[in-house]
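job 3f2a | input accepted
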Amino acid sequence: MDHAPARDGTSTDGDTATAAYWRFFEAFNSRDPEQFSGALNYPHVRVSPRRASRMVPTAAAHAAAVSWDAVLATGWDHTEGHDPEILHLAADRAHIVGGWTRVNASGGNVLVNRVTYVVTRVPSGWGIQCRFGTDAGDAEQAGETSANHERAVAVVEGYIDAYNDRHWARCVNLVATPHFRVDVGALREWQSREEMWAALRDGPWHFITPLSIHAAQGTDDSVTVAFEGLVDGGQAVKGVFFVTRTGDEWAIAARSVMVE
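job 3f2a | predicted structure (260 res):
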């Protein structure tokens, strides 16, 4: 799947998106702020159910803020990336399920995390533009269950049904705020459901026919849901929705959708 041809006909895009994934870990291990910031595309956001999500506008802003102090204090020596799985691939975007293990100098595990990456190609090249971080350890430690997968999938199914009905109130009730939509070299953020409602009402609308919706990765309080379908009965649409839980409520915190 890594070598699938992109829609612009180049057969190397899958390798290049995957190379950006591995470059991310190499850059983090360098402990160099400029090198690490250069592995990302901007504006950049890391979305998590366990910490506040913050958009970073530029590489300079990221380099000025990044620090390894807290990680080093845990005994960390280096990070090893997990083998990636490409969910969706286009000429300028890839959705990759992966993650990492932080390792100490003796080779022991410090922390395991599973992450979904939105990798984009901008004029300067491929880079990580968004991360959906589960931030809860491995599957067993994180309490990943089929019940949580089903709840998250039901949220995405409900959102698409409400969107097709143009029932914006139902849509925004299934969205967490702040809410992020990731595009290539762009990031849209809504701070309230009222803002989201207005954007849906005033934006373009296309009927979506779902073909496949399934949980790709998850924990006890977050699930990445992969989606494939058709827009207006013709164009292929593929996306990832990051569904998070606050209390007993599951809602979509972020999404990345590509239309081919």
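job 3f2a | The first strand starts at residue 40 and ends at 47.
job 3f2a | closed
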